[in-house]
Amino acid sequence: MTRTLSGSRAWLVQRLTALYLLCFLPYALVRLGAGRPWSYESWRASLLSPGMRVAVLLFFVALLLHAWVGLRDVILDYARPLALRSALLGLVAVAATAVGAWVLVIMTVGL
Amino acid sequence: MQESMHGRAAMQVPGRARPAFFNLLQIGLPVTAVVSFAHRVSGVVLALLVPVLACMLQRSLSGPEGFDQLAALFARLDVRLVMILAIWALAHHVLAGVRHLLFDIHVGTGLRAARASAWIVFILEAAIVLLAIGVAA
Hints:
The complex is a heterodimer. By secondary structure, chain A is an all-alpha fold.
């Protein structure tokens, strides 16, 4: 992940994911507002409809990639000692992968 | 005579005392720098909230009990306060991010425009935070 997501590719991933997040956010806000008041049944039906499953999964993929590039930039800027830098990058990579796998499990429930 | 004064002034330039370091308190932070740094800080805060968001997603879909627990959580004043801080971070990050995306396509890269858009970011995020407080209260 560190080697495949650096330089101009990281820059591009940062921008492309930003655009998806920028589109998803107002859409999610409008849907959240329109569906009020939410019950467990209406929430579940709305979130687990085929289109929303894909949209929410894509949202988390974009979010995690975006966060990875951003945190990577911050770590490279401030964590100077190599051991600390590697440890932090590894920690973030593992955490991001774990959250991604978890969301995949959550959003594919009942399939 | 004027020529000689010019000459002397020009001669003085290399010897003029220059700051050997930048005292940030003395020169002050331009608004563009504050927007840029706050974009970074808000980004780190939001990144740390991603696992929390996944957790909330899981609880909300886990069953009627989990859903109700989450709803009860959002009704608490302290949780709402944290939510408003999160909305503040998100509002700043998105607005400052759009500003950066516009820079990428060479919109508003002049000094005056960049300063103006930095102020616009702060004004819009203040409006969003006030709106969130109004909704939460």
